[in-house]
Design a protein that fits this description.
The strands form four sheets. Strands 1, 4, 5, 7, 12, 14, 15 and 16 form an eight-stranded antiparallel β-sheet that branches. Strands 6-13-8-11 form a four-stranded antiparallel β-sheet. The protein has a single domain (about 25-250), classed as Jelly Rolls. The longest helix has 25 residues, at about 30-55. By secondary structure, it is an alpha+beta fold. It contains six helices and 16 strands. A hairpin with a 2-residue loop joins strand 2 (about 60) and strand 3.
Length: about 250
């Protein structure tokens, strides 16, 4: 797969990320990478359904059968995804947000099923990790056009939340979601075509609505950190350990 790449991140977007914690890149994925991410999605949903079958349940963590799926550790199972995860596009995103050093921290598919896709509560991605880490980068990559009708993400910029630090979250017993924001601000909906990326820090509060359409809403989530994030014991890695950028240079390519 040969992909031609052109720089897409302006100084204004970099400043917005520093000031507000996010920016959006509409329609930036090369067609080859969009097709790759789409083609792998169904297999991960099938694997999660098989795990549910084995355990005789319709709920595993925050996965709810035929409603919403959060299927993680995808690159380890399907290394071909590295063609996108370690691409020059993602290298530029990491340089613009994290700086010269970056590690792959987490990756997963996030899918809301047709007509039943559940909402997801207000949270920081860091709310699923202990407080002793630097904020990392979330890249919310659209595999379908996203709208308020099909359950897009809503972002709460720093200037509107007033929060730039880790916040203690509580667990919703009905959904297993972690919830950290209880205010009335609905946030900014990401309305974007397939192949777009919403880039935001792990301290930015976000939520998503239900999918009320007749089609799935598919997202690939790639998260990167500027340093290895360890568990609270300081010894065991929390997520990935594979370095992507070193001193600004892409040292990991697929």
């Amino acid at each position: 797969m040969s992909v031609t790449y052109t720089s897409v991140i302006t100084d204004e977007l970099k400043q917005q990320f520093r000031d507000e914690g996010y920016f959006i890149l509409p329609g930036v994925l090369p067609a080859e990478h969009l097709e790759l991410l789409r083609s792998e999605c169904g297999g991960f949903i099938d694997r999660m359904n098989a795990r549910m079958d084995e355990q005789g349940t319709d709920v595993l963590g925050i996965n709810h059968r035929n409603k919403r799926y959060f299927v993680s550790n995808c690159y380890a199972q399907r290394p071909i995804l590295g063609k996108f995860i370690f691409s020059e596009l993602m290298a530029e995103v990491c340089r613009a947000t994290l700086g010269p050093n970056a590690y792959l921290f987490w990756n997963q598919y996030v899918v809301k099923c047709a007509e039943q896709g559940m909402k997801f509560s207000w949270h920081q991605d860091s709310g699923y990790v202990h407080p002793n880490h630097k904020p990392y980068l979330t890249c919310w990559i659209t595999l379908d056009d996203v709208t308020e009708e099909n359950g897009t993400v809503y972002l709460l910029p720093y200037s509107r939340s007033g929060i730039r630090t880790w916040v203690q979250h509580t667990v919703d017993p009905e959904t297993n979601d972690r919830v950290g924001y209880f205010g009335s601000d609905r946030g900014i909906p990401v309305i974007a075509p397939a192949g777009s990326i919403a880039c935001f820090t792990s301290y930015v509060f976000h939520s998503s609505g239900a999918n009320r359409t007749k089609n799935m809403r598919r997202i690939f989530l790639a998260q990167y950190s500027s340093e290895l994030i360890m568990k609270e014991d300081g010894v065991t890695p929390w997520g990935g350990t594979e370095q992507f950028l070193k001193d600004g240079v892409r040292i990991r390519e697929q």
